[in-house]
Amino acid sequence: MPSQLVDKYFRAEDLPQIWCPGCGHGIITRAITVAIEQLGLEPDKVCVVSGIGCSSRAPGYLDFNTLHTTHGRALAFATGIKLANPDLKVIVIMGDGDSTAIGGNHFIHACRRNIDLTTIIFNNNIYGMTGGQYSPLTPKFDKGTTAPYGNIDRPFDICDLASGAGATYVGRGTSYHANVVTSLVKKGIMNDGFSLIEAISGCPTYYGRKNKKGGPVDMMQWQKDNAVTVTAAAKMTPEQLEGKFLIGELKNKPEPEYTKEYQKIIDNLKGSDI
Amino acid sequence: MSNKVRLMQGNEACVEGAIAAGMKFYAGYPITPSTEIAEISAERLPRIGGKFIQMEDEIAGIAAAIGASLTGAKTMTATSGPGFSLKQENIGYACIAEIPVVVVNVQRGGPSTGQPTSPAQGDMMQAKWGTHGDHPVIALCPSSVRETFDLTIRAFNLAEKYRMPVLLMMDEVIGHMREKIEIPNASEIEIVDRKRPSCPAEDYLPFKPEANLVPLMADFGAGYRYHVTGLVHDETGFPSNSTDIADKLIRRLVDKVELNKEDIITWEEENTEDADIIIFAYGCVARAAKTAIKILREKGIKVGLFRPITVWPFPEERLIELSKSVKTIIAPEMNLGQMVLEVERLCNKHTKIERLNKVNGEIIYPEEIVAKIEEVL
Amino acid sequence: MKNKSIKGNEVDHGKLIINADWCKGCGICTAFCPTKAIELKNEKVTVVDIDKCTQCGLCELRCPDYAIYVGRKKNEQ
Lengths: 274, 377, 77
Ligand SMILES: Cc1ncc(C[n+]2csc(CCOP(=O)(O)OP(=O)(O)O)c2C)c(N)n1
Ligand code: SF4
Ligand code: SF4
Ligand code: SF4
Description:
The complex is a heterotrimer. Chain A is of the alpha/beta class. Chain A has one domain (3-270): Thiamin diphosphate (ThDP)-binding fold, Pyr/PP domains (Rossmann fold, 3-Layer(aba) Sandwich), CATH 3.40.50.970. Chain A has helices at residues 4-9, 25-39, 74-84, 96-102, 104-113, 158-165, 178-190, 204-210, 216-226, 230-234, 238-241, 258-269; strands at 46-50, 65-68, 89-95, 117-123, 169-174, 195-200, 227-229, 245-252. In chain A, helix 2 packs across helix 7, helix 4 (96-102) packs across helix 5 (104-113) and helix 5 (104-113) packs across helix 6. In chain C, the strands form two sheets. Chain C has a three-stranded antiparallel β-sheet. Chain C has a two-stranded antiparallel sheet with strand order 3-4. Chain C contains two helices and five strands, in the order E-E-H-E-E-H-E. By secondary structure, chain C is of the alpha+beta class. Chain C has one domain: Alpha-Beta Plaits.
């Protein structure tokens, strides 16, 4: 029997996952189930929705109500689920390309509505599933199969994007800092509104290889070396922070939640003549 | 309670029909000439405890409607021309994942932005072939306000029964036309609900078909935790690379409609018993055809009407039969010849087929049909 | 719908349990084990010295394929 956690929340008969050796996605998927375990959510009431990509294969391995949708559209499907049945806890898993390229419009609007969805973006800085093309999160000058001479696009900062668009809870973790991911997902689920957790993941097969960043261990080591917690960063100079990125809670500013606001309309109309 | 008589627009009748059928959720994006469907849904749904949401685009509209359907709600999205193009990928998703949803297309002139406020029938083949891959299609086509009410209910019933998207192919004329209609009492309306499992959760196979080829559908949250994907999958719902499973799944999806055609197909005939000539028309063009028949009958020309109500699947058998006894079939369409391709394919051997096409944004007038028939006599 | 019978080749080392069938040999657990209680052999994780293992759980936390996890807790032994 696998570990209690895996036995309880995974469709263990389908493991191991299709992912490549050392792909960060498996670590983050597990971190999400730890959050669910710690919150004691009722599995029958949990819904996990994804788009298309390597990351989006995660829900298939999880023993909840799971929905693997079309590329980029997970948040739109999830919005329908949540609005139709607000009793469900809806968790959305997307890749960086899935969420910010083809799904970018759905992403900003889900943030704006502040609908109670907990979204985890598995950011591996590349299109993994289709073989290593550059994504809106590929750093400038890095390589992808469609950026053979280096990427000249400027990348998004997913967390800034979410904050700016109105997400009420925002945080960042990494596959190395899996415990941080767990605690952010937990708080994200507890936030009654739209929560965005960026989980930096490693794609050793394409991003790693294309950019000579080494194998799985090197990618984890890179995360370890370059992530700075929000608290530590407060005491650092801009020079010290050069090339680093923040992890931890970046925004926690609750606002009225969408489905609750809609319910108010329904309640106000009750008894009014039809 | 006596039946209510009300003057209403086709688009309003669509919403009234949807609500009578049990619609509890609408998601869409405004576009002329379907916008009133969204506006009236926004007004009506919260009053009955339902939900309306205006999404960021048409892709999101159908996606949210499909998501909501998985929780057990009856759902609809409506659009026109450009929006219908945007919805195609997720129509295919609803086909393979077997999720009931009603998709309304109030047709306008295309391609692209085309003629936003003009009627057209240019999306009839898109309804059949718009999404990629082999897939089942049910598309209904009303030609009056009252029929819009009835066919919207039928669209929900068929979506629930066969677990698939059902397309309601209206046009600008039907959508905006006002007619007095008698709204039937709830007790007179047949309502079909999807079949849900009652077995223990461990025994539930979400994609194992029943005798009518349709699997039982559990609501998300009802205690059957299962997986839904747009990938080819086996009866458990999990993706499969087996060629056998792929073959079986795609054939079953298409056969849900193919083998249940008799239950699905409907059409209308008028004056066909003694007809020498048949007008093949649907949607708003069928109305002009009816007037043309009157004019021509007065002149002693025996003309009848064959009007497919279910445009997909196409009412093949009856049309073939009729074609054997008539000299000509005239197919007026507000496109450059779409459904006539089916007529030609099926009836070529038996009779002569004449087209009458218009794409200038105007309706087809009865006189034009009369002139065409007199010309080919 | 969940089939609980898991095929697998689990070995119980007391403090640690390893399922070699699921291990893809990525080396993450061994690289970040603070005590070097485990190492890779023939692209599979193996125990070098179980006594060194402090059951800190980091290998379990970071194994992408759930092939290694902490067994009975110290105080139960
Ligand atoms: C409409 C559409 N366009 C393109 C694709 C091809 N496609 C599948 S996954 C993918 C990108 C995946 O990258 P990302 O979202 O970053 O996830 P990852 O695979 O890296 O986890 C693309 C382009 C598709 N499936 N559908
Ligand atoms: S291609 Fe990259 S993202 Fe996809 S499974 Fe392999 S390592 Fe992970
Ligand atoms: S539990 Fe800690 S000490 Fe033991 S093998 Fe795992 S990482 Fe090493
Ligand atoms: S982290 Fe997991 S898969 Fe990787 S070597 Fe260790 S046990 Fe094997």
